[in-house]
Write a structure and sequence with these properties.
Length: 190
């Protein structure tokens, strides 16, 4: 399996590098022809499933529309029959949108973007953002300390989505190995 550690230096064409990966080895699920569910999206779904958070019929608000996280998780949630609203930099009245969610997923890279005014009781909040501050403290996109007092459940940063992404990478790697092994076994029988 192959993964590209992002972000890449500015002078490197990220899309060209990612598209150069053989789809059978794209365990991060980032190429346009990947055979795998993108690892971060898969990690989030695994987390929701593990804690028996119902997705079907729920209103999900996705804050962030990146090709790496926002779009893949949005598509995955739509495939699981959630109603998904995607918010981004141009979204007006962000707090109005986010408060309506049953499940709020945030992946913007903006530390502390989501505060108590953005959430409501009973919500499940998934914080995908991760930023290292100047004081070396690692924080997410959600004001964890204050938001956690309001919502039903929230993922920490670090230690929430990150480990689930790693788990999903290894699960995809195992699938890639098993596919390769099956291919080689079938090829040797010819």
């Amino acid at each position: 399996g192959i993964i590209v550690q992002l972000p890449l230096p500015e002078h490197v064409d990220k899309d060209a590098v990612i598209e150069a990966i053989n789809p059978t080895k794209d365990v991060d699920g980032l190429t346009s022809k990947t055979l795998f569910t993108p690892a971060t999206a898969k990690g989030i779904l695994t987390l929701l499933d593990y804690y028996k958070v119902k997705i079907k019929g729920k209103k999900v608000v996705m804050v962030g529309k990146s090709q790496l996280v926002g779009l893949p998780i949005t598509l995955s949630l739509l495939n699981r029959h959630a109603t998904v609203t995607v918010c981004h930099k141009q979204t007006r009245n962000l707090s109005q949108e986010t408060r309506q969610a049953d499940i709020l997923i945030v992946a913007t890279g903006v530390p502390g973007l989501i505060t108590p005014k953005h959430v409501s009781k009973g919500q499940v909040v998934i914080d995908v953002g991760i930023t290292v501050l100047r004081n070396k403290k690692v924080v997410g996109d959600v004001d964890f300390e204050n938001v956690s007092k309001i919502v039903q459940a929230i993922t920490p940063v670090p230690g929430g989505v990150g480990p689930m992404t790693v788990y999903s990478l290894f699960e995809n790697l195992l699938k890639a190995c098993l596919r390769r092994q099956a291919y080689e076994l079938n090829s040797s029988k010819r």
